[in-house]
Amino acid sequence: MNKKMFWNAFWIPAAVLVLILFAVLADRIFSLPFPAALIPLLAGGGFVCASTAREVFETRTVTTGILVVLALIATLFTGEYMEGAEVSFMLLLGEGLEDYAMARGQAVVDSLLSSLTPEARRGCEDFFHQESGLEQLTDRFSRYFLPVILGICLIVFLLTRDIHRVMSILVIACPCSLVLSGPAAVLASVENAARSEQLWTGGDLEKIKDYRQRLLKKTRTVIWENILIFACLFNLAGITLSGLGLLPIVLGSVIHNLSTVCVFLNSARLLKL
How far apart are alpha carbons 81 and 249 in whole angstroms? Predict the structure, then answer.
């Protein structure tokens, strides 16, 4: 395990967790002039808001991370400070898992590509460029998420006047697993290709062509599985339960992370092809 990579990915959620534990102890041992849960909420929520603002600034678009920011702001107005702190921790933990998995996968791919012969490296890089286009599949879905989810939230609030249901929908609907559906699968596929150097050079051309086609086809299948099953189905189930008032916001954030983990596990199947 790369300790530096691990620390870079998880130091923020670890710090927020420590603040949550401090807040719990503070409420029991001594009283502060303000709710102790505000400390981890402002710290964790601050990191979430900062990363969302950075993403909006870099992409020049309204991103789906705004859904989570709205949910955290709502916890301030409803006084659910500890709930907001727990949600921010879960979301930061999910981001840490994403960052660690992607960084580790990229490091493996880079090391494998560096060890290939020039001819094999060119073949693998060409294959990578072919697969990169597959990531555009997720763009067709993610661009409609924000207006649709905000519309659902408005309808639920008008019908129930329950801000907690709306908060839970906002958290679980943030489509991290959808955004990662393509990149995770492509990264795993390229790693598979890089490991198969013997199929890029000096081999049977028909065998090389067949291998590439099979890997591309399998990658498309895995991406669609990630989108339809683990991103859309998990989110749809969570949104439905939240809209019915059957899923608290903290459990919603657990499902949010679970769908992301499933995307990575499903993409890992490409390493065994």
Answer: 12
Q: DSSP secondary-structure letter at 243?
A: H
Q: How far is it, in rounded angstroms, from Cα 237 to Cα 142?
A: 17
Question: What's the pLDDT tens digit per position in 17-29?
Answer: 999 999 989 878 8
In angstroms, the CA 202 to CA 28 distance is 70
If you write DSSP's letter for every residue of 90-104 in order, what string do you get? HHHHHHHHHHHHHHH
**pLDDT tens, position by position, 37-69:** 999 999 999 998 998 888 888 877 776 678 888
CB atoms within 10 A of CB 70: 16
Residue type, 218: K
pTM above 0.85, yes or no: no
Under 8 Å CB-to-CB from 135, ≥6 apart: which residues?
A: 182, 183, 186, 223
Neighbours of 63 (CB within 10 A): 20
Residues contacting 78, CB < 8 A, separation 6+:
163, 164, 167
Q: Give phi and psi for 248, each to the nearest 5.
A: -60, 160
Q: CB-based burial of residue 135 (10 Å sphere; 0-12 exposed, 13-18 middle, 19+ buried)?
A: middle
The 8-class DSSP code of residue 235 comes to: H
The tally of domains found in the chain comes to: 1
Closest to 189 measured CA to CA, from 231, 130, 111: 130
CA distance 7 to 266: 25
